[in-house]
Structures are given as structure tokens and as C-alpha cells.
User: Fold this.
Amino acid sequence: MVKTVIFGGSFDPVHKGHEEIINNLADRFDEVIVVPTSVSPFKQGGSAASGKLRLEMLRVCSFKANVTVSDYEINKQGCSYSIDTVRHFYNENKQLYFAIGSEGARSVDRWKCSDELKKLCKFYVIKRPGYDEGTLSEEFLQADFCGQDVSSSEVKVAVAMGKIGGLVSKEVEQIILQNGLYTDYVKFTRAYKTFGLKAERIEHTYRTTLEGIKLAKRYDVDVADATVALLLHDIGKYVTPKMMDEMGIPIPECENLPLSCRHAEYGAAICEHYFKLKPSIVEAVRTHTTCNLNMDKLAEIVALADYVEPGRNFGGLEIIRQAACVSLSLAMELMLKNTLEYLTAQNIEIAPITERVYRYYLEINKRDKKNGTN
Assistant:
């Protein structure tokens, strides 16, 4: 019996992580069918690239001979449900598998006709570094390889930062650049010059954004919102009240804050009045340095990503990075504790709210530990 695996996705764009997964599948199955979606039911905003261009990008990739790129869902149009695709390719002479990532394994029961889907095919789960899919039930098979820790969301940030090389093949990069794809975030990175962001701060922002995207995916936070907040979290770093006044941006009242924390307030004002962004993004930028009570997950992610991005290297970071993979509230507690201990040791002024927030998370985590939820 022919072992056939279906690997679907938006592939918007296809990156080197996808290529590696597809060629690994080709080594383990008789046939690999790559199916770009028309519109995913979980991504109703649609794709940045047309179906035609996504097919073109897939077809210029260096896949092995037993890999087929299917235009079934693109031609079908409308919302792409896995059950329809599996029914289309089902054949009694084939053992059908459906390849999904660690994140996808958590949501299969919410898919359309999931019970029928489990009867028609076996799920083949490809672990992604940093994701714990937990104990797999009988309908899941664990792949004996991991996918790269890269996503299409990160490629879109790399385009805005002028760093796409290395994340996609040269052929795919050419299609992206020739067609002006994935420019959603360019207006934010172009503003770095307007607000005087220095080169080293831009590099830090890039690393922070990639780190935050991973956290957003882990904790089911809107990736687009997280990306914008992360790209702009330090936009006020070198801004002065005079500059803001000249640009018609209201100057926030933050004289009560330490000088090192005021850039977050300036950045929030820029987000609100210059870019006219939604309140949740503004608040995430405002609180990423001092933190605040009752932060939502977006704000927690921006604060944590800023703190643990891979360019940072100081005591206590590894345990905070590990905690961030398990619990946002625990990671926040550890981050704030580490920050307060450092500032105290260096005799650096501490924003009063930061101490209050630390005690807040300490109490939350004590309660959750007692209740067995953390």
C-alpha cells in the first residue's frame, strides 16, 4: 500500500523551514502532496500573496522527486477545510497521513468533521523546537525529526528589516522582491530613521520581535498585533519632548518615572498619535519597561521578549527563558524579581509601580500553585 502524506499550509511565503520539512517527509513516505490553502478557516484575513504566487514560490523550491505541489485548494477557492482535502485525495489503495505541527495538534478537535478526518487519515506530528505537544493520543504519530524554529511571520518581519536572505531560497526571495510582497510592516521600520533609532537598537528590536512572535504563537496571541507592538516597543528610545512637540505628538506626563523608563511612555504616545494604533498595542508599548497591574498577554509578551531576546546575556536569564515556555505569569514574576535585584544592587532608581507589579505576580503564582494551575 502506498504511504502518502498531505502537508498543507498557507505557505505565505514558503521558507527554508518548510523546504526542510517537505524533503524530510519525502524520505519517509512514498508520496508527499503539498497543498497550499486558499483561505484557512483559522486565518480569515486572507494571504498577503495570491494563490498563483504562492504556487509559483512552492514550484521553484528544490524538492525531491516524490513531492507534488497541488493546486486543488487554490482552484477550489473559498475556505480550506482539511476534511475536504483529505476526501479529495483519499484512495483505498493508499495509507493516508496528514502532517501537522505541534501547535496544530492542540486544535485538531476543533476542526470541521474531525471524527471523520481521524478515520480517513493518520496525523503525523512534526515537533517544533520549544514546543511541547504533550502526550500524543493514538491518532497521532510523532515524526522522528523536528522542524526549524522559523515561521512565515518571521519572514515578513525580515522583509521589513531588509534581512530576508537566508530565511527563504534565492528563487523565492526573487519572487517576493519582484512582486513587492510582505510590506505590511515596512511603514514601521521606515519610521526608525524619523525617530532616530540607532543601529544597535534596531538590531535589538529585530531580535526582540522574532522572540515575541514565538511567544505569541505559543500563547495564542494575535501575531500581527504582537509584531507591530514588538517592532515599535523602543520607538521612543531617543525621542525628546522637543521632537515630539515639533511633530505634533502630545507629550506624556511621566516626570515621576526614572529617565530610563520614559521612552516607553514616549513610544506609546507615538503609537497612539502618530501611527494611530489600537489601545492594546499602545498599552503593550507603554508597559514594557515598568510593567503594570492587570497586563494582558500581549503586554506580557512584549515585556518578556524585550528582556529575554537572544542578544541579552546576564545572570538569571536562562531560568526566565525556560519559564516563558511554560507560564507567562511565572516568567513575569522571575523577570521582575531579577530586575529589582539588579536595580537595587546598582543603586538605580526603581519605578514604584514595578515593585507593586512584582508583588502582584508573586501572589498570583502562589495562588495558582496552591490551586494546582501553575
